[in-house]
Amino acid sequence: MFDCNQRMLVLLIIINCIIIIIIVVVVVVVVAAVIIIIIIIIIIIIIIIIIIIIIIIIIIIIIIIIIIIIVFIIIVVVVVIIIIIIIIIIIIIIIIIIIIIIIITRIV
């Protein structure tokens, strides 16, 4: 059988193996945790970038809609002003024609 020194040697080898296994498991768990944390951080950064891009696109669309509405309002106002000016000119011409007709009929 084994003497005392050999038993202690076997016991030390077993303890060393257990310690090495524990260290390897701890290292693997720590590395896995770090990798998972890095992946989660990358996913969060990607989500934040996507949200920022979506917000920028929405702001651009809102600005374009506002510009289109302003241009439409300006066009409508200009068209209405032009129509009012044309109506005023037509009324003035009709009044002038009526005055001329009245003057001509008075003379004759």
TrEMBL record:
Q: Which domain of life is it from?
A: Eukaryota
Membrane spanning stretches: 9-29, 35-64, 71-104
What keywords does the record list, in alphabetical order?
Membrane, Transmembrane, Transmembrane helix
Listed name of the protein: Uncharacterized protein
Which organism is the protein's source?
Answer: Dreissena polymorpha
